[in-house]
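Dear colleagues,

As part of the handover before I leave the project, I'm documenting each prediction I ran so the next person doesn't have to rerun anything. This entry is a single chain, and its sequence is reproduced below.
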Amino acid sequence: MIQERYKPTFLRKLYPNTKLWMSLGITFAILFFKNVWLSLAIMIASLIMIAYEKYILEFKVVMVSILIMAIMMFSINGTLNPVIDYSKDPVFILPLLNWKFYKEGLEYALTYFSRIAPLMASLFLLFRTMNMTDLGIGMYEGGVPYNVSFMFISTFQIIPVLGKDMNQIMDAQRARGLDTEGNLLKRFKAFLPVMVPVVANSIMRVRNQAVALETKGFNSTAKKTVYRDLPRTKADHFLKWLSILIAVSSVIYKIVITYVLK
């Protein structure tokens, strides 16, 4: 069987906990510093790394969501936001739709859009390059109880498994003559013949997994071990402490701006 193999790029070789710290640092920096140029730099860097990691096709869905969000935010806030001073002349007008856009509303939309879009791009990149099995090992080594880390990782792993089962069952039902295309009524009729096997397979998988976990001593009180050791490099230590420094600095900056210099 042909399997997809991923080249061990810089991001994929990072320790999973390092990416969690990076996610925290980037999130705090964007939310608390509130700098448009910083957000733009993070967005551009994320897009470059997404292209380098060859996730452009998967990122298209996120990009479409960002574009739709931008259109809605700028169109609504630029015309109807309560912060707008309508006594001033509009920035520009769309004559056919009789829309007047004002500077205050556009700036308000830009403020929030510059926080949301870079977060979506950067977090997509960090979590997409993260192996869920490695994340479970990293969480356990970081002090998270093994049963909590197992439930957390299983939640993320069940989604692609169910998607794969759904596609296989739909192909099998089409081969038997089931019509899954057409109007909404036809799709609804084809829903039950597909979902019943998916649910049945899920129940059987849960039962088999419970038996497998019990035979491997999942509920045992003995100290648990991991089957592989994830290496930590100098880049992991540097990025971890840099992310912590950025997160703490952004929080201090927010406190100073809000309460000290107010």
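The chain has two domains: 12-130+231-260, 145-215. The beta strands are 92-94, 99-101.

All the best with the project,
I.
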